[in-house]
Design goal:
The chain is mostly helical. It has helices at residues 14-38, 44-69, and strands at residues 10-12, 71-73.
């Protein structure tokens, strides 16, 4: 018998949410830039390692986006700046 545990989504501050989203975007941009750069490489081993780097960047960006999809942004305290 499998028991399903329902969890409330993580509540993140708007600042932390934006920081994680920015990190995911930077990783995606870096992956695109590195993928384009790999076209200039001649050594097959360098190309292989560069592809591993690009995949790691995309995996980390996807992991962050998946996490953010399971979160909600906490409302700022009254009178606080966002």
């Amino acid at each position: 018998m499998t028991t399903t545990v329902l969890r409330e989504p993580y509540e993140l501050s708007p600042r932390l949410y934006r920081a994680l989203l920015a990190k995911a975007l930077c990783l995606e941009v870096d992956a695109l830039r590195d993928e384009l750069f790999s076209l200039t490489l001649a050594n097959p081993e360098h190309i292989r390692r560069h592809r591993i780097l690009v995949q790691a960047q995309r995996d980390e960006a996807a992991r962050l986006r998946d996490f953010l999809a399971r979160t909600k942004v906490a409302p700022p305290p009254s009178g606080a700046k966002t």
